[in-house]
Structures
1.
Amino acid sequence: MTPKIRAALTLPDRAEILERERRFSRPAGIAAILGSVLTIAGLFIRGLALEGDSTSELLLDAATGDSDGQLMLGAVVSGLGLILLAIPLTFLFVATRDRSERVRGAF
């Protein structure tokens, strides 16, 4: 194994790991909560835009264009929520990678 690869596979200093986790835990938590709320809100917005009892009625209503703006708003809000959920997932992956040699070696 070359020195460059060996250096990439060694774990960082524990104090450095804890400091980084302390610094990013609050923004990751806020992004998780906000992402969840936005994703659910987008589903409600889209649900309010569609009226009807059966799936075919919902699809026909969406195809007529009566509530295109509301459907688009619901999709955008849900999309923003899903993008925000990537932040805590990345935080958790980095924390796991820094603590485990098996995870670090896999990537």
2.
Amino acid sequence: MQDIKFAGHISFQDSVFANCAIFINSIFTQGVNFGNVRFDRQAIFSDATLKKKVNFTGTRFSDVYFDGSTFENKISFTLATFTANVTFEAINCEKEIQFRGVTFPGYVNLKRATFRQFADFTGVTFGGETILEYAKFKHGVLFLGAIFVHDTIFSNAEFNNSTDFTGTIFKQRSNFTGVTFNGDTSMWGVTFAHESIFHKVTFKYSVSFRRATFPRGANFMGSFFLNDVDFWETKLESNSKHNEVDHFLNANFNPSPDVSLFFPESIKVNNEGLPEGAKWITFDIIDNPAPSSNRHYEIPVDEQVQRDEIPPTDNFPKNGS
């Protein structure tokens, strides 16, 4: 079944696809029911268009491909079961998408995926390598309590609203190189069990790494922090270096008096109140770096490391946009 236009409501309820199921470039103009369907081999929905409601309740997938597909209605995979690899590369989600509580035992490819509305990955377990390079989240996204078992790549992804990784666990290498966060971001209580890379990341709104743990260090080299920064009670490896360089080498912080910075004792600050290797940089009205006037907070180092006298609140601020 390829290049087919399904004009009416379609039901595959309780079906078993013993061989490869191919829906490449197909168009589902009305609702489609895959409830309790079992795909024993590959299910290929590459470049398909699903215009209305799709039911995946009880669906069991082996290898599945949704690369290049468009979901024009709300979609939920919450009650589906995945037993192998999953490809969502370059999907286009026009409405809300739900993966809450799903377990992906294999490789997950979300490279260049576009989520135009809310995306929910709360409690998801990613068992294999997970790729989200160049993914675009146009609305809010939740990764609350998610577990990434193997390497995870978010390089050059774009988050255009609030982003919440609270309580997430990265068991292997996590790479956020070149990511842009255009909304408030929470990494509250995240465990980065292995190497974590935040090279040239842009945080345009408030970011919280409160109570996050970095037992293998972190690399924020060349990143931009344009708003409030909270590393309160963060556990960063005691050595101030990460692979022979400062954790915050050439990281850029906003000197505005309206911006709050909180660093724990595990992050050594210099006499300008910044982590070693970091610098102040002013920003223009559209948040682009502007020539620095060399102004900075006149905060003694001792005051920076004694924030326990005035700890920040636990409430994560709402998006300031």
